[in-house]
Amino acid sequence: MKNSIILLCLILLVSCKETSKNAQEPQSEETTEQKTKSAEPDKKKPLSPHTSTMAMVGDAHIHFDYSSPGVRNRIVFGGLLPYDAVWQAGAHNATWMETNKDLTIDGKVLNAGKYGFFVIPNQEEWTIIFNTNWDQHGKDEYDENNDVLRFKVAPKISEEIKEHLEYKVTKVNNTSGTISLSWEKVIVEFPFEVN
């Protein structure tokens, strides 16, 4: 009889522990989930995400690195960005371009290297600028004396709005290609040759 009572008590004790454990598990999971949510700040998508584009044209590796601002229902060229003023051709830090081979652009040689890429927008024509100071915030330290190549390109106007600034390096053949940037309704494109 005594053994039966002890056995019954043990069964009840084990049963109570299992019930208690099962009852606490969902609560502890919720608490962990709540802690995780409160520990993580709300992750918002950046307004001007950092991105890059690159391509191989023959032996040339061409790489653009930039932050891509959005239009966000604004008038960009002639509004947010005034005409006839230097722009770092992206958001935040200056956009930079790197090539491992010499390129010929607008009949001039751009030596292999890394360059800040700047533009001066205008309704009729844009000035494209390659500058030796590639590592700067915006155009804070831009100095025209550091320009190694400047030329003008007529912009094309698109019917469709390009919400985020986008660069493309497009291979035409093993020795030539095009570089383009498009944002809002404007597309600026120019050819290059690999030396």
UniProtKB/TrEMBL annotation:
It holds the Pfam family DUF2911. Residues 32-45 have a biased composition (Basic and acidic residues). Residues 21-52 are annotated as: Disordered. This is DUF2911 domain-containing protein.
